[in-house]
Amino acid sequence: MAGPSLETMIYVVGLVLTVGAVGGLVWTGVAELRLRTLRRSRLAGIATGGRLPERAAGGLNQQLLSTVRRLGQQSAVRDPAKVSQLRSRLMQAGFYAREAPVIFLGVKAVALAVATLGVILTLPAMLSHKGSNNIALGVAVGVSLAALYGPDFVLKNRKSYREREYSEGFPDLLDLLVASVEAGLSLDAAVTRVTEELERRYPHLTIHLRFLVLELRAGRARKDAWSAFADRLGIDDARALATMLRQAEEMGTSLGETLSVFSADMRAKRMLRAEEKALGLSAKLTVPLILFIFPALLGALMLPAAARLVRVFGHGTPG
Q1: What is the pLDDT of residues 6-15, one digit of tens each?
Q2: Distances (CA, A) of 296 to 69, 289, 305
Q3: H helices of the chain, where?
Q4: What is the pLDDT of residues 186-205, one digit of tens each?
């Protein structure tokens, strides 16, 4: 009777820890979204009344967020250089808030604390000799791996997804820039116009373009603004464009011709990437073809013959 009860306790503990960790992360994200909505409404001059947001901000969500922020600040104080690199990664993944690195480090600290608690709770089951220690060990390893690599894995996937969008939208961005510059607009005005055109098709790229427009309007040097834009995107095409614009400005070459050449190069690269994916499709289809299509085809070809042989030998045997 001790074996099933121990397994049940292990499953319940693992389920509670998993649900608690996921619920805490979701709760923190919801609180941050509420605070961002409140800030945006205040900046836009929208009358929110103040009572509901204040109540939400002063409740348990705010306490949980302040705890996560406090843990993140302690981690940030120990390694300031890591915070600068993490801020760049978070901006590339779409987290632009000033406290995003602190909140991310706090979430990692909370996840490690939850994983530590989970391992401690599963220690009695791992030390027992009733045959259930393997399940407890699996739960402990799973919770530990999720706490150690889960936040970084989510951040990496989000960054990769946005980088794909940036790479797909960059040739269109250059084509529109070339058309706008050749129509007589300045580069700064062309960027503003292109931002309006790309808002529906590439919303995440448009956010970085808006930052670029604000920096140019604030008086930042063009080469510095474009370099910061390339760093936020984190793709090689943006860095090449920033370098090209800086060289064109220093050497005094025609901006329209330079952008036209660079745009043609980007279109050629996009076509080469499409051809590369098309050529690799046959190799990627080999495994599904062998595992799924070939057995079905073999069964469709052999089953009629097998049924006919069974019928012939069945009628041929003496009764």
Answers
A1: 555 555 555 5
A2: 56, 10, 15
A3: 2-44, 51-57, 60-78, 80-93, 100-127, 133-182, 187-197, 203-217, 222-233, 236-251, 255-279, 281-284, 286-288, 294-316
A4: 888 888 888 888 888 888 88
Structure tokens at 5: 């009860």
Residue 304: phi and psi, rounded to 5, are: -60, -40
Question: Does the global pTM surpass 0.85?
Answer: no
Q: What is the DSSP string of 75-117?
A: HHHH-HHHHHHHHHHHHHHT---TTHHHHHHHHHHHHHHHHHH
Within 13 Å and on the Cβ side, how many CA atoms surround 131? 5
Alpha-carbon span 49 to 282, nearest angstrom: 60
Evaluate whether 281 touches 258 at the Cβ level (below 8 Å). Answer: no
* pLDDT confidence tier of residue 313, bands split at 50, 70 and 90: confident
End-to-end CA distance of the chain: 56
With left for phi above 0 and alpha for psi between -120 and 50, is residue 219 left, alpha or beta? left
